[in-house]
Amino acid sequence: MRPEETVREVTGIQSADIEAALDPVEADGVYRDSRQCAALALLSGSTKLLLSPPTPRPKKG
Amino acid sequence: MEQSGTSTLLQGAVQDIASGVVSALRGGDHARAVPPAGTDGEAGELALAAVRVLGSDALLPDLLLRTPTDPAQVALFRKAVEAYPPRADAAPTVRWSHWGMARTLRRVDPSYTAGPPDEPGTGWLDDATWQFLTHQLAVLAPLALPGEDCALGRLAGRRPVDVARGFVRAVRRRDWRQAAGAGRWLTLLSGVPDTVGLEAGLDFVELMGGQDPLVALHVQAARRMRAGALV
Fold it and tell me: What top-level branch of life does the organism fall under (chain B) (predicted)?
């Protein structure tokens, strides 16, 4: 018996399950909230990480 | 989307082995990165399938640290390569993953002489958007190894800015697996803009997504490679 057949018999896993795991669709995006942005800013220190620029606001006066 | 029981079982097994790999990369127990080939019954068979999904990363500690691979782990790895060849209509990522495993197997098991004679093509990425390119490269992050030339790596090397954009996008979407995989590729590419902040970005990915062993694995791999680990 081929190993693959054994796997299928015992666990129900087939080649299609493995290939599906190796060819996943892209996960839906979940965007950060402001607290996480703050954490990112802290983590990046004085430098390096790209953060979204602040939302443009109208000038006063 | 809800996963099937089988899929959940498999993903759990993949994560278990990935945890062992992460531990080994952090200086823990190398021998447990992959369950030994003698593991019996359901656990052993599940491990076999999980090793196939994890790909070459199942042996990553030995590849990066240049330590000899335990023969039992080599045997299990070889069994996974031989048991799950890509089907004729398999997706390119499946083909590349298997090709990468065969390449790794030839490295760790000189008695293994079989394997795909040619690399799979990269045609499916020729006109890929930077988003799709990054997603596919992240899926194939186990192929991101220093000193290992392949057509996929050369293709990535021609598009460092696109991969960098994809990395940033993945971080912003909180797709930690994709971000970690893309970040791992970026450590190998030249021409990556400094403004990406790769090192801090990888720290952030680990902070936010590192509880997922697959995320932790790619971040650890990237760190090891940045530190100069050679294959």
Answer: Bacteria
Residues of A in contact with B93 (CB under 8 A): 22-23
Query: Taking CB atoms and an 8 Å cut-off, how many pairs form between chains A and B?
Result: 115
What sign results for the dihedral spanned by CA atoms B77, B78, B80, B85?
positive
More confident residue, B32 or B230: B32
With CA atoms as reference, the chain A residue closest to B173 would be A29
* Tokens found for residue B7: 């899929």
Contact across the interface for B9 and A13, Cβ inside 8 Å: yes
CA B65/CA B87 separation, integer angstroms: 33
Domain range summary for chain B, segments of one domain joined by +: 1-120, 122-226
Asked if the model's pLDDT at residue B193 lies above 60, the reply is yes
Residues B18-46: what's their mean pLDDT? Answer: 75
Q: Identify all chain B residues contacting A31, using CB atoms and an 8 Å cutoff.
A: 172-174
